[in-house]
Amino acid sequence: MQIVRTIFWVLLFVGLMTFSIFNWNPVEVSIWSGFVLETRVPALVIVSFLLGMIPTWLLHRGTKWRLERRIKQLENATRAASVTQPVSPPPGTQPANPVDPARPTPAPITNPDTGAKPIP
């Protein structure tokens, strides 16, 4: 990816230099009435480009910073949730088979028709 970025900037620089060589003419820019700025065309183009690029670049950096913070926050939450903790039953519930030593176990129920005991 770094090579693509480098090629892009080199091509942009070569294009800007070519434009500057062929358009090295002075121009007058009237900013306010009575305030006239005399400059060359390439300087005007470069300054205009930078003035248009700076707000977009600042917006990009701010969004990237905010999303990186959000990603780190979610990663930390996932890491904290993945730690295994013993699961205890919710308060007010009892286990499925409570064992109470003070209470005797009931006798098995027999079938009144046959008198047979159920299979354990």
Automatic annotation (TrEMBL):
Segments for region (Disordered): 77-120
Sorted UniProt keywords: Membrane, Transmembrane, Transmembrane helix
Biased composition (Polar residues): 77-86
Keyword Transmembrane helix part of the UniProt annotation: yes
Transmembrane regions: 7-27, 39-60
Protein name: DUF1049 domain-containing protein
Organism: Pontixanthobacter aquaemixtae
Lineage: Bacteria, Pseudomonadati, Pseudomonadota, Alphaproteobacteria, Sphingomonadales
